[in-house]
Amino acid sequence: MPPQLCTHCKTARAQILRPKNHSRLCAACFTSVFESEVAATITSTALFHPGERIAIGASGGKDSCVLASVLKTLNDRYKWGLDLVLLSVDEGITGYRDHSLDAVRRNAKELDLPLHIVSYEELYGWSMDQVVAQIGKKGNCTYCGVFRRQALDRGAARLGVRHVVTGHNADDVAETVLMNLLRGDLMRLGRATGIVTSTPAAAVDGLKDADGDDGAGAGGEVGITNVKRSKPLMYAYEKEIVLYAHHKKLDYFSTECIYSPEAFRGSARTLIKNLERIRPESILDVVRSGIEMARLVPEADGGCRGACGAKGAKKEVIQPDDEDEGNGGCGTGNGRGSGGEMAEMERKLLMDERAEEMGTETEIQPRPVQNGVGADGVKGRQEATPAPHPASTTIVPVRPKKKDGAPRAAVALPGKQTLGRCERCGYLSSQAVCKACVLLEGLNKSRPRTAIAVDASHG
Amino acid sequence: MPGRRGQADPAKAHLCRRCQENEPAVTVRTEPLCRNCFINYIHTKVVKRVGGYKFAVCHSTAQRTFLLPLSLGASSLTLLHILDGYLKGQIERTGRTGFALHVLHIDTSSASPHAPTDPGSLLSKIQDRYPAHTYSSIPLSDILSDPSVADLISAYLSSAPPTTPTSTLTTLLSALPSPTSRADVLQALQTKLLISFAVRHNLSAVLLGHSTTTLAERVLAETAKGRGGSLPFVVADGEGNAEGNGGVPFYYPMRDLLRKEIVAHAALAVPPLTGLCVAGTGTGTGKEREREVPVSMKNSTIDGLMVQYFEGVEREYPSIVANVVRTAGKLVGEGAGEKAVRCALCGMVVALGEDLHGQGVVEGEGEEGTGRLCHGCKRSLPKAV
Q1: What's the superkingdom here (chain B) (predicted)?
Q2: Which domain holds residue A166?
Q3: Which of A182, A187, A234 to substitute to test the interface with B, most B CBs within 10 Å?
Q4: Which residue of A has its CA nearest to B333?
C-alpha cells in the first residue's frame, strides 16, 4: 500500500492524523495549519490591537512554550506589531519550578523575547516550599492558585502590560466545563469558555472613580486591577500542541507539579481523556457546549462572554474570578484542597438535602428552603473558594474573623456579582479582604513578628 | 433520603433507621432501611412527583391517557409498577383515576445488540400482572414511515436504497461512523417514534422511567456531543421540554431516585420485579447493559462511558449525581422563535452560522450543512445534508 499523502499539499507523506477532523497532514502542513488556526482565533475575536504590549504567561511547560513560539511567528508574519514579553511566576518549588524556569530562560533566548520573573517570595514573603513546610501538603494548592493569579497580574502591571495571554488549551477548557457541571458551579460555567476571562476593570474604575489610583492611570501606568487575561490556544488540542512542539523542536519542561491535584479536576480530566479516545472531536464539542451553556447561565450578560469576540460582544463584562480557573502552569490546576474535595461536597449536599426535608416537614423555617439547595454546597466550600455568586441567592458565607470592623469595600452591582477591591492590597475581590491577604494573614500569624516585613500591597 | 427520623436510640442503632423495628435490608444514602420502609421510600419519592403534576388529579373532563414507554428494564418497569398502584389507590379513594396509561414497547432487536431477546413473553407476563392498561409493541423501523425521517435517511443512503424498513434501518446504522453515532441516532429515532406514536394515539404526555442518574448521564453525554444548548430541555420535567419534543411533554416521575435504588427496589418489591425485566443481571435496561465494558475504547460509546462514570459517582458520591442535574436545570432555555430552524433528527434549535472561529469548520463539514441538522446530529450523521 502506498503511503497516504497529506490532504493539504497532496505531495508529502501524511504523518499526522488530526484529532479534530481526522484529516491527515504532513509535518510542514500541520505546523502551518496549526498556526493559521491560532491566527484565525486571534483575528476573529479581535484579541489584540496593533502595537499592544502582551505578556505571555510562561511556565516552561508545553502549552506556554508553544504559545510563545506561535505568537512570535504570527506577529512577525502578519506584522501585528505586538510587543511581546515573557512573564514567569516563580512559586519557589524546588525540584520543579527551578528546572522549568531554566526552560523558560532558554526559550526567551531562543525566541529573543524579554523575560521577567516574579516570585512568591518577593511578592508575599513566602515561597511555596515554605508554605508547604508550614501547612503541610494538604490544601497547599489553594495558596498556590490564589497567589498565582495575583502574581501574574502584579508582574504584568510592573511591566506596564494590560494583557496577559496564557497557554490554556481546548482540553483544559473542556475539563473546566465538565468540572463546573460536576461541582455545580454555574458562575464559573458561564466564564469557562470565554476567550477573554478576566477583568479589564474599566467598569470597576468607572464605578469607583474616587480611588482610581490603582486602576488605569492617565499616564499609561497599569494598575494590578486592570490586566486582562486571554487564552488564544483555547481551541487547540493538547495533542496537537505536543505535536507542534515536537515538530518545531521546542524545548519545554514536562514534569508535573510535585504537590497534589484536585479531585474534581482529576475526575473531569479522566473523563475528557476517555471521551477523546471514544470520539476525538468531542473535546471541541464540549468546548462548544460550554459556549452554548454560558449563554444560558442566568444573568449572564455579553452572551457568549467574549467567545464571539468581535461580533458585537460586550467587551467590558466584569468577570472577577479571584482564582485562576485553569492550570496556570502547574499542570494540576489551581487545586483547592486534596482528594477529599468530592467527599466533602457530597457531605455538604447531603446535609442540604436533609435540611430541606426537615424544613418542609416542620414548616418552621420561614425561608424558602430550595434557595439553599444546590448552590449551597458550593458556597459551603468557603474555605477554598470565595466564589462570587449572584446576589439573589446569596447566603452568608462563613468568613474568617475580621479584626478591624472596617467598612466593606465591595460595590454591589445589582443582579450581578459583588465586585470591589481588597482593602489591604487593592486587588479585585468580592470580599472586603482578598483571598490572598486572608491566606497570608493566616500564614504570617505563625511567623515571628519581625518576619512580617514584606508588604503584599507593594507587590 | 428517608424523611422522618426518630430520636436516635443507641440500643436500636442496628435496626431500620425509620421504623426502628426491623433489620435493615438496604442502605439508602447513609441510612439503613428495612424492606418495607425502603419500598415506602421509593413509592413516596415517585408519588410526590406525580402528585405535583397538574394532570395527575381527577378532572371532570374527559380522562387523558399518557404514554408509558417500557424498555423492559428495571426503571420503566418500576414506574409502571408504582403508577399502577397509584391509580388503584385513586380508584379506591375516589372511584376514578386522574389518567390512564398506554404502555408501549419499542422493539429495537433489529437495530441494537442491547435489545432484549424475547420481549414478547416478558410483555405478556407484565400485562398479566398489570392488566388495567393498554399495551402496544411496535418495531423501531416504524419510524421510517415518518416522511421527515425518510427524507433524512434517503439523503444519507443515496446510493442503494434498501427495500424493507428493517433493512433500511440496519443499513443506516451500519453506515454510521462509530458506535457512539449509532447509539445517538438510535436514541433520537426512538424519541421521534415515541412522539409520533403519542400524537397518533392522542396521548397527551410521555412518562419516562429516567432516574436522577440517567438524567445526569444525559447531561454530560449531550455536553460531550456538542449539544450543550439543549441541556435545559434535557433536564426539564414536563411542559418545560415540550417545545423540543414536538409539543409533547416528557415527564420523569422517577427523577428523584438513583438508579441503584431502583435496581435494589426491583429485587425487594413484593413480588419482585426482577422476573419481569430483562434477564442477565435481572436489572438490565438498555443503559444498564452498556455497563459491560467493551474490550476496546473504540467500541464504546459516549453514552456508555457516562453510564460507567456515574455508576462510580453514584456509589461514592450520590448527591453529586443529583447536583449535576440540578445545575443543568438552572440554565435558562432560550425561547425559540417561530422561525427557528429545528434539527430534523433531535428537534433542538439549530444555531445558524455557528463556528468556532475557523476551528470548528472541518473540511466537508459546516460548509455544506444547510442547518437541517444541529451540530451534535451532524457529528453522528456526518454525510447527511
Answers
A1: Eukaryota
A2: 40-296
A3: A182
A4: A296
